[in-house]
Amino acid sequence: EAQVTQNPRYLITVTGKKLTVTCSQNMNHEYMSWYRQDPGLGLRQIYYSMNVEVTDKGDVPEGYKVSRKEKRNFPLILESPSPNQTSLYFCASSPDTEEAFFGQGTRLTVV
Amino acid sequence: GNSVTQMEGPVTLSEEAFLTINCTYTATGYPSLFWYVQYPGEGLQLLLKATKADDKGSNKGFEATYRKETTSFHLEKGSVQVSDSAVYFCALSSAVGGGYNKLIFGAGTRLAVHP
């Protein structure tokens, strides 16, 4: 089954404790992205990747890192999480530059 | 910059009612336009899209027409069902260089359909 898999689905952590949210796709897509969803703001892009070893900042990259060492994986790293990073996070992959396939989301709470 | 504006929700309807969710956009050039749907506890799924002016996207009884003159892409359905209850996002594609177009989303409109 074609899918984008994120883990974990739910995470509660403390301020400053490094964490990684994993994302994996099995569709051989070149393009992958991370978004955060906040009430009243819709989805905002954090980072995107056009291919292995090619990543770039989206609209809200501060406090986040990504890597793309393999085509299928695109982890999101929060090296020192803060409460304002409490949000719902989505990973997406795309076969072209437009239509996106989304994971089920990761709800992160930073206390 | 490019942006998408959606009507605020929630929208509450009875089953079989007519649905319209308004979406307008600001963009340079001729972006593709999309409607995505998010069912409870799930990620977003593409509902329909239109790639040029006057195109009509349709899927599962939903329709939207790309109106360049009014910069709009309103979502409509003639008879909603309880299973249509979800959050609906309007989006456009925006070129960022290097052949990559990113999606810019509206804030989302929550639809609740009651029996």
Write the layout of secondary structure elements.
The complex is a heterodimer of chains A (about 110) and B (about 120).
Chain A: E1 4-7, E2 10-13, E3 19-25, E4 31-38, E5 42-51, E6 54-57, E7 65-66, E8 76-78, E9 87-94, E10 101-102, E11 106-110
Parallel strand pairs in A: 2-11
Antiparallel strand pairs in A: 1-3, 3-8, 4-5, 4-9, 5-6, 7-8, 9-10, 9-11
Chain B: E1 3-6, E2 11-14, E3 19-21, E4 23-26, E5 33-38, E6 44-50, E7 56-59, E8 62-65, E9 75-77, E10 86-97, E11 100-105, E12 109-114
Parallel strand pairs in B: 2-12
Antiparallel strand pairs in B: 1-4, 3-9, 5-6, 5-10, 7-8, 8-9, 10-11, 10-12
Describe the structure.
The complex is a heterodimer of chains A (111) and B (115). By secondary structure, chain A is mainly beta. Chain A has no helices and eleven strands. In chain A, 39% of the residues are buried. The mean pLDDT of chain A is 94. By secondary structure, chain B is mainly beta. In chain B, 0% of the residues lie in helices and 55% in strands. Chain B has strands spanning 3-6, 11-14, 19-21, 23-26, 33-38, 44-50, 56-59, 62-65, 75-77, 86-97, 100-105, 109-114. In chain B, strands 2, 5, 6, 10, 11 and 12 form a six-stranded mixed sheet that branches. In chain B, a hairpin with a 2-residue loop joins strand 10 and strand 11. Chain B starts with a strand and ends with a strand. The model of chain B has no long low-confidence stretch (mean pLDDT 93). The chains are: A mainly beta (111), B mainly beta (115). Chains A and B meet through strand 4, strand 5 and strand 10 of A and strand 6, strand 10 and strand 11 of B.
